[in-house]
What we know:
Number of domains: 1
Radius of gyration: 18 Å
Structural class: alpha/beta
Number of helices: 8
Oligomer: single chain
Strand order of the largest sheet: 6-7-8-9-10-11
CATH superfamily: Ribonuclease Z/Hydroxyacylglutathione hydrolase-like
Distance between the termini: 37 Å
CATH class: Alpha Beta
Largest sheet: 6 strands, mixed
Helix content: 25-40%
Amino acid sequence: MFIRQVKYSTDNLGYLVYSASEGIAIDAGGVEDILSFAEKNQIRIKYVSNTHSHQDHTPGNHALLKQTGARFIDCRQIHSDQTLKLDQEVLEVIPTPGHTEDSVTFKTDEFMVTGDTLFNGTIGNCFTGDLNTFFSSLKRLISFSGNTKIYGGHDYVIESMEMAEYIEKDNPGIREYLRNYDPLLIVSTLDDELRANPYLRFNAPSMINILKKRNLPANTEFERFKSIMENY
């Protein structure tokens, strides 16, 4: 399976995930770019969906549905793991609530479209207020293979690495992350995130030491995650 990334607005990232002849438009605000690419490559847009229902991720829905006749997959109605077929290939749709109640992640064996749950270099705000559920969603995502590519909902890489350096200034993973940053294609691997993204480094010895030096709760994974979230 393949993926096409389209940047729209200031920093939003939309996607066309596709197989040989069928695709799904996800958070695809860059409608003309998506349609042009699909037409050029003879891809029928079979589905339109979103990683969550915030308005900055849904502006292309109406136009895409009208122009393609695609089926709408409403993230607000996904409460358990589902699969979608593109030609003979399978795309998983995984509920990952926390940023919003209706947040989902689209996953193949090679990559994930994570929306505002997991950005490249940081994580989303927990607008639900339920840190336990958000933590569970993130724990599930980081349980997948380390070479899984991450495609997030916005390009916040520079600001995120500035924050990462503020929190953990001696972490060499941050400099490596920035060396690999390409503003024309925002992507990282799960291993990259575990090396540099401070909000996923709750088990890293250096992060645990930082929390303990500040006398922040650090006895369990969740305590450490919560300490990072609430203090940085």
